[in-house]
Recover the amino acids of this structure.
């Protein structure tokens, strides 16, 4: 089957059946929920909440089209052995990774706050990658998972635009993946970082990848669903 072109910046993105995965980055309670770690750092978590409805719609469309779905979670082992001291020392002096927070120990695997928000919870068969860093390839088996599945195209979503979404997109781009960042399915605590972060992806002829919104991506996924049926 020929690729389906998605209208995107800076040029149409080739959506390829059987070779495309949806990556949902760090939609975790610790970052998104009022009262959680993100808010305790002084951030306005409402900015991230706006991502949930369009991302839920995209996730539903990706599932219907039979795309591989990969969720990531940023966090660490309870003994913090995978958290570099430099990462642990940084951040708010009052609350650090591993400290008790409103939703359990902050960014620790197995804690309530470390898990994904209910609206976007993984379903059976979807891959969940626990990552100790900002990029989803560092310290994980994501490369092997994608290679084994024959994936070449990534639809990248999640939070935050300029941190984990950007780092993962850059890592993926360097590894040869074609990445489309879905603009209304990524979010930041900072409007300027979000806006410029998206511009940086598609600048210079798509130096890191492509950018399009769900209004362009979901119909293409629906076309994939119809064609496959
Ligand atoms: C941050 C992330 N911002 N998922 N993590 O620390 O972007």
């Amino acid at each position: 089957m020929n690729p389906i072109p998605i209208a995107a910046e800076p040029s149409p993105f080739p959506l390829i059946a059987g070779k495309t995965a949806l990556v949902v980055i760090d939609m975790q309670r610790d970052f998104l929920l009022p009262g959680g770690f993100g808010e305790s750092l002084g951030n306005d978590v409402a900015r991230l909440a706006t991502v949930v409805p369009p991302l839920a719609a995209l996730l539903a469309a990706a599932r219907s089209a039979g795309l591989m779905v990969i969720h990531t979670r940023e966090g660490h082992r309870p003994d913090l052995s995978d958290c570099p001291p430099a990462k642990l020392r940084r951040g708010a002096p009052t609350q650090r990774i591993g400290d008790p927070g409103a939703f359990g120990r902050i960014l620790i695997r197995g804690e309530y706050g470390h898990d994904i928000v209910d609206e976007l919870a993984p379903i059976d068969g979807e891959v969940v990658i626990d990552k100790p860093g900002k990029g989803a390839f560092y310290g994980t088996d994501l490369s092997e998972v994608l290679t084994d599945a024959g994936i070449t195209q990534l639809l990248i979503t999640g939070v935050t635009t300029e941190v984990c979404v950007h780092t993962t997109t850059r890592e993926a781009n360097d590894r040869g993946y074609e990445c489309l960042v879905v603009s209304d399915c990524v979010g930041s605590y900072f409007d300027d970082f979000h806006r410029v972060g998206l511009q940086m992806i598609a600048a210079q002829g798509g130096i890191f990848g492509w950018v399009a919104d769900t209004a362009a991506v979901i119909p293409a996924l629906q076309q994939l669903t119809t064609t496959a049926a």
